[in-house]
Amino acid sequence: MMAYGLGIAKGMMVTLLNLTRKPVTVQYPEQRVTQNPRFRGEDFVWYEERCTGCASCAKYCPQGIIKIVTAPSGEQTQEGETYKIETFDIEIARCMFCGLCVEACPYDALHMGTGFERAKPRRSDLVITVEELRASAKRPSTWFRPQLQNRGYDPAKGEEVPWQEAGRESTVAPTYDDMLKRWVEGR
Amino acid sequence: MDSSFDKNALFSTLNDFYLGLLPDSLSWAAFLGTGLTIVFILVNAVLMLTAFGTYMERRVLGRFQTRLGPNRVGPFGLLQPLADLLKLIMKEDLRPLMADRLTFFLAPVLMVTSMLVVVAVVPFGSDSFLADLNIGVLYLVGIPTIATVSMFLGGWGSGNRFALLGAARAVAMLISYEVPMIISLAGILILAGSMSLVDVVEAQRLPFILLQPMAFFVFLIAASAEMNRSPFDLMEAESELTAGFHTEFSGMRFGLLQLAEFGEVVVTSAILATLFLRGWENPFIPADWSQVLPPQVWLIGKILFFMLIFTWIRATLPRMRIDQVMAFAWKVLFPLAVINMFVTAALVVAWPEPTYTQLWAIAGINWVVAIGCLIGFSLALDKHRKNPTASVQLVKIPTEVA
User: Fold this and answer.
1) B110-127: per-residue pLDDT in tens?
2) From the CB of residue B28, how many other CB atoms can be counted at a distance below 10 Å?
3) CA distances from B160 to B167, B234, B262 (A)
4) SS3 A89
5) How far is Cα A51 from Cα A103, in angstroms, rounded to an integer?
6) B81 belongs to a structural domain
7) ipTM
8) Which domains are assigned to chain A?
9) Looking at the domain assignment, is residue B70 inside a domain?
10) Residue A46's pLDDT is what?
11) Contact check, Cβ <8 Å, A23/B382
12) Once rounded to an integer, what is the mean pLDDT over residues B377-402?
């Protein structure tokens, strides 16, 4: 038999025990929560060396906010001619961080970033230009980039990834035995 | 001069000081100056405690909810009340078109006044108080009722339906809770044999919280209802009534209402400390500890203690429905207070001049009665909850109209 008012006593005990707990508050500008390495931040990381100017990212963007203008570069590389990127504008104000552009990139040239502090007084300032993309630190998020995550890379630690290591070709493809272990015996 | 001033050392010292400054023909001015000086000290003390109380309440409430509370303004956020004040003063003072000019102006002023005036009878030392009224306890329960009136003035004068509803709820609830509150004080008056608060404190050879546990319980709950705080804050239920009677108040008018609300916590804590925890004396049984700490510090410490308890209650309990609130006042608190009054009266008749052993016996009997009554009411209410025969039955509407 539950007596009337016992719930009140229980509730009072709960709040009293809360006094002994550590506050969960994180005082933001001074303290920060630890970010997941797969965080989809607003500063995109772009490797010009890897980019061919195919504009797959612009085609796959559901919002249509990536604008790419290219010109023939005249360089004859081993695979063929590449394009010179003249414009690579990402209108971040309308970006919803779905990451489809990063998924679409066939050469792993575009990665999500880790930042979240791009507040500006005007909408027109919320455009990432190609100069900014070239100049920004190369700390890509590991979202949709298992080759980065598998080797224990964490953008929060501050180390930069050179363009040679950012691609999926840097990881060793799984062998037949690996796949057998993973998909047949592991099930 | 009044005989009650003879033992008021603070008053007579100050009066002598002013008499020395002024010629003899102006002795009334010295009297007035003395009174005003003590009023100035008291009002400022209450306002400072209130300001600190808002800060403490928000910090402690934060910790009760495992967060930090305000900590950015000044060291540890101690200047937060000042920042709040600045913000409220700078806000625009709006008066709605439908509002009644006089009542809208009067409501905050009356509310703050009724809160501050109560402090006049609270003694903060055996020889220092503003007034030792021989009907002190009556004054204590009578004056805060002005706050009820001012709430209704504010709610009705706003010309807003939410405000009017909130004010109506406030009046209904506050008047109901006056009754158990006053009757619970009857037990104390019987034991103390006087309505003067100084006498009540001096009569506490054992603190009345030991002798009158049920009165303390009833008074604590009724007082937290009188303060309109959670779980009895249904007159300003923001989910139903925006903000209740102070919906239309803004700027410093709103600030005054908030001040009155938080100030009432301080004042009620002071009353609780005076009535139940030996006021300015140490709350412990061994007799004279006045050398350890000055009496004012004891009183302020007890006030802070009761403020913490009120914060704890506020942090825990959710808001009750109006029918639950009223039922609790009339079905639980009122009978408990009456039982307590009769038991205490019987004990006082049995032992008119109790020795210490007899006092402990009174305390023991009262505790047994209190715990027994609480368990009994709790079980009875539980039965009532499962089989609510006495509650309102739905009237069956006949389907066929003859």
Assistant:
1) 999 998 888 888 888 777
2) 9
3) 11, 17, 24
4) strand
5) 14
6) no
7) 0.70
8) 41-170 (3.30.70.3270)
9) no
10) 92
11) no
12) 65
Q: Please state, in angstroms and rounded to a whole number, the distance separating the CA atoms of residues A92 and A40.
A: 13
Tokens of A126: 């919320």
Q: What is the pLDDT of residue B3?
A: 46
> What is the pLDDT averaged over residues B58-66?
90
B64–A19 CB contact, under 8 Å: yes
Q: Which residues of B touch A27 (CB under 8 A)?
A: 68
The total number of structural domains in chain B stands at 1
Chain B residues close to A18, C-beta within 8 Å: 63-66
Q: What are phi and psi of A113, to 5 degrees?
A: -100, -165
Does any CB of chain B come closer than 8 Å to the CB of residue A29? no
State the DSSP code for B393: P
Q: Which of B245, B256, B11, B251 is nearest to B115 (CA)?
A: B256
Taking all residues of chain A, what is their mean pLDDT, rounded to a whole number?
Answer: 85
CB–CB contacts below 8 A, A to B = 48
Task: Report whether pLDDT(B334) > 60.
Answer: yes
Tokens found for residue B307: 């403020």
Residue whose entry in the numeric block shows the structure tokens 């003072």:
B93
Partners of B379 on chain A (C-beta within 8 Å) are 1, 3-4
pLDDT tens digits, residue range A68-118?
998 877 666 666 666 788 889 999 999 999 999 999 998 889 999 888 888
**pTM, rounded to two decimals:** 0.79
Q: Please check the confidence at residue B9 and state whether its pLDDT lies above 80.
A: no
Nearest to B304 by CA among B103, B76, B90, B59: B59
Q: What number is the average pLDDT over the span A148-163?
A: 86
Residue B47 lies in a domain: no
Percent of chain A's residues with pLDDT above 90: 24
Query: B164 is in which domain, residue-wise?
Result: 94-381
Q: Is B18 contained in some domain?
A: no
Phi and psi dihedrals of B177, rounded to 5?
Answer: -80, -15
- Which residue among B67, B317, B382 places its CB closest to the CB of A4? B382
User: Contact B63/A22, CB-based, under 8 Å?
Assistant: no
Backbone angles phi, psi at A93, to 5 degrees: -60, -30
Interhelix angle B251-276/B80-90, nearest 10 degrees: 140
